[in-house]
Write a structure and sequence with these properties.
Blueprint lengths: L1 H47 L3 H8 L3 H9 L6 H10 L4 H6 L3 H17 L5 H17 L1
Helix pairs in contact: 1-3, 2-3
Length: 140
């Protein structure tokens, strides 16, 4: 009986260690994301000649919270992220992942252009577009 209890204790301890490692790994990933997001916020503030205090007033968020976001030790909720993006005249995609708003606009424009002209395109034109897209996938 003692051996069974010892095995159960060892099993529980092993499971706890695995959970701790997983949680630490998740925290590290979140912190890395926050650091890059914080760097982007800081960079935008510099570009706009804006202070954290000015951003806090414009976004309706406390200056302390903004400081935490920039340092990377807090994650803004979605509603706060949207306020930050609007105040900084950017997108939440840019703040989170560094995806430039210009790239999204160009892609949207390309899609609209193709959709608008698809009826006038020959099969060869359509294949050419498909080939361009597929070749781009091969490069990755």
């Amino acid at each position: 009986m003692k051996q069974n209890k010892n095995r159960e204790i060892i099993t529980i301890q092993t499971q706890n260690k695995k959970q701790d490692k997983t949680q630490k790994r998740k925290k590290r990933i979140i912190m890395e994301t926050n650091k890059t997001m914080g760097a982007r916020i800081s960079e935008l503030l510099d570009q706009k000649g804006m202070t954290q205090k000015q951003l806090s007033l414009k976004a309706g968020i406390t200056e302390a919270a903004i400081s935490h976001y920039i340092k990377g030790d807090r994650i803004p909720r979605a509603s706060v992220l949207i306020k930050l993006a609007i105040a900084l005249n950017t997108t939440s995609d840019y703040l989170l992942e560094g995806i430039s708003p210009d790239v999204k606009e160009e892609l949207g424009y390309a899609k609209k252009l193709i959709a608008r002209n698809v009826t006038q395109m020959s099969k060869a034109d359509k294949r050419e577009i498909i080939n361009i897209l597929m070749e781009a996938d091969d490069d990755d």
